[in-house]
Amino acid sequence: MAGPARTYRSSQRSRVLSRRLGESVVVSDNHNEVWIKVIRISGVRVQIAIDAPIDVAIRRSELLDTEPDSDPVEAMCIRPK
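Now predict its structure.
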């Protein structure tokens, strides 16, 4: 079951992009490059693939407000298999 809907909080740093299936967005700084690709669209759900360096933590926003039982960083990070 999905959690409560979240209101998007816009800021001057926000960027809103439209992508089609198979298209990507690249986010980079001086040290890292993160590729985000739309790999599946099913109804209102979008599945993305994230290609990032191992030291870049990837967190789901809905988990940022919860208190996990274990180490917060490890509980919220997606690690490559």
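The mean pLDDT is 79.
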